[in-house]
Specification:
306 residues, single chain, five-stranded mixed β-sheet, mainly beta, five-stranded antiparallel β-sheet
Amino acid sequence: MKISSIVLTKAHILCALVFLFFQGNAQRNLVPNPSFELLSVNCDSIVSGGGGAKYWYSTIVNSPTYTIANTCAKNPCCKIPYLTGGQDYQLPHSGNSFAGIVTYFIFSPTAKNNSRDYLRTKLLDTLKKDKTYYVECYVNNEDIFKFGINNLGLYLSDTALNNMKFNLNKLRPQIQQFGNPIILDTANWVKIAGLYKAHGGEQFITFGNFRNDAETDTISNNTPINGAGYFIDDVSVIPLDSLVLKADAGRDTTIYKGDSAWIGSRISGITDMHWRTAAGGIVADSVPGLWVKPTSTTTYILDQTI
């Protein structure tokens, strides 16, 4: 018997971390009700677009508009894990609850819609001038909406953002995924995180899409509702001196020749990182992560100096 074998040529990506960034131990999150566990309504009253998480508000004046989902909900719209009568399946990132908003909506193919909803809360303490904070949340693309989009971010402000309608707040969010990619994952929670140096006096944090339709990139996932909606969970604003923050070189990966892979993290605002190969070649500076396309086994080393 003749045995034939096919060998596919692969490239191995090996990541190594040289320095870690350590500061302190105790973590103090300045976001109240960060995972939406505390409800302001009873379980029977949870409805789509009806809000219901303590300390969290839509930017639309006197209207909750956002949706809270909870394991105790009686309405099929908001019952975890089978939301919208089973059209959405999602477990919380932690606990028994999460929130959801519409971040992009198309009323007609020719309309300049810029229809947005935002979710905000007041921080437990004002941010201090020149102090650095680690800001994070987890998001998930809602199955029932047609699109995944980029531009999702967190905006820190001195005063509360308020609208009378579903209007665009055209601002530059300080926290986005590094590279601002489209987030299309409907199964897993995706982290949005970054470092923020405060000017002092910031009291509010707001989540949403702060760019107009022309500036928003989309990918269709062929579901019916002509827009994009995202679930959000576990929002954090943590003073960096109360946090252990590890630099992340990523995991070892095997790819086929011709393919590329992302190494490192997408935490924005980190600039003290240096990527090199084991042979000493400089790959990139001042970025938390990057796309690589090696043609042979390569070790990438991340140096972080503080």
